[in-house]
Amino acid sequence: MRLQSLRGFRDILPDEAARWQRILDAARAAAEAYGYRQIHLPLVEATELFKRSVGEATDIVAKEMFSFRDRDKTDMSLRPEGTASCVRAGIEHGLLHNQQQRLWYSGPMFRHERPQAGRYRQFHQFGVEAFGMADPACDIEVIAMSAAIWRALGLEGLTLELNTLGSPECRTRYREQLRDFLREHIDALDADARERVETNPLRVLDSKHPDTRAVVADAPRMADSLSAEARAHFEAVCAGLDGLGIAWTHNSNLVRGLDYYTHTVFEWTTDQLGAQGTVCAGGRYDGLVEQLGGGEVAAVGFAMGIERLALLLEQAELPVADSAPQVYLCWQGDDCLPAAQRIGERLRAAGLRTVVNAGGGSFKAQFKRADRSGADWALVLGPDELASDTLQLKSLRQREPQRTLTVDEALAQLGADVAIDPIAV
Ligand code: HAM
Fold first, then answer.
1. What is the C-alpha end-to-end distance of the chain, expressed in Å?
2. Which segments of 34-125 does DSSP mark as H helices, in order?
3. pLDDT of 63-107, one tens digit each?
4. Which CATH superfamily is domain 327-420 in?
5. Which of 87, 146, 264, 367 is 20 to 30 A from 349 (CA-CA)?
6. What angle do CA 203, 209, 215 make, to 5 degrees?
7. pLDDT tens for residues 129-153?
8. Ligand 1 mutation target, pool 308, 311, 313, most atoms within 8 A of CB
9. For the whole model, what pTM was predicted?
10. Residues framing ligand 1 (Cβ under 6 A)
């Protein structure tokens, strides 16, 4: 049997990894600029955690979790998202009680979905969660941070869709009203929506089925069920975004596929990725901490999909940092090996990405490798250079004469600062 990666589980090869790194670097820099600190969370949690947070009636929990029972007969699941774990950890370590916390995390999440471009069973998120701030300032903050990440990446053309689900009371009231309406039109709904009328009627609103969409067009609107406070909160968020020059559109059918949201929900979407157009999504979830056994703690956050953003960077042909070596050191003769390795260490310590040839080969073969490595420069060390304490410097990209230099001269020539060399050679 030929071994292959599992369906929906991908290898991230170096070119794509470079795009990922660019995204993660930009996201981390933005999170830190906004005062968020990193938290590492386990990949596996008690299944119960996701049932009680994401919600038993959601597709994620009902159909998509990788759940199993371990040798100790504990029911556990690979995490399908990060918010639940973050809340669990916050409660467990006393980070949330009477405090404000701004946290960020990144890593793999797992959902047993039907894989297609931009949708995988193992995918990766960068997420932020802010706790203890109930005012619209914090909703605005996390949305502004996501916008800052797109700016830093040079990504243009993303649309911010915004909605409010109101307080839990508004939501309960609206859910009943919507359910009554949908029951009256049950025969006109598609099978999937019909099933959801009883379990999760709000999800019927974002159905893509044309029959269901026709029904939904006349459904009662959440906006009409909002309390005065909920309306004021949403208006303040909208005004805050306007004040920052962040364009948004109101999508009153935006409900999100996780149960814990209240008030503001948002998604950043693109039309460049076909059906998987949401690159970042989040919102407020003021009831979740209490629901999981903590106190009454307001919370808001988002998570972005690294794979989808990497696809966008690739399509837009945006530049990514080059991680190829800058220098390739060719050497020959057993006597030269110690010097070649010492020089290699010195170049690296001076900040130059350096490959020292390994695997032998004639100088011709080594130059070929040097060229393929992506390096701009080759250094050559043979018995003559060893005897005279010099190197040959050869440009691999330009027609320039090869030069004989001392190691210090070569370092200076390569633009490195010899003075910062911390390794005594
Ligand atoms: P979510 O909408 O389920 O929200 O996922 C957030 C993002 O993860 C999506 O917008 C998408 O970019 C990416 N994503 C989701 N599923 C897949 C998949 N199968 N393949 C590739 N990418 C995917 C959450 O997870 C919430 N925890 C977000 C949040 C944080 N809300 C508040 N705080």
1. 51
2. 47-50, 59-63, 83-92
3. 999 999 999 999 999 999 999 999 999 999 999 999 999 999 999
4. Anticodon-binding domain (3.40.50.800)
5. 367
6. 75
7. 999 999 999 999 999 999 999 999 9
8. 308
9. 0.92
10. 81-83, 111, 113, 118-120, 123, 125, 127, 129, 257-258, 278-283, 301-305, 307-308
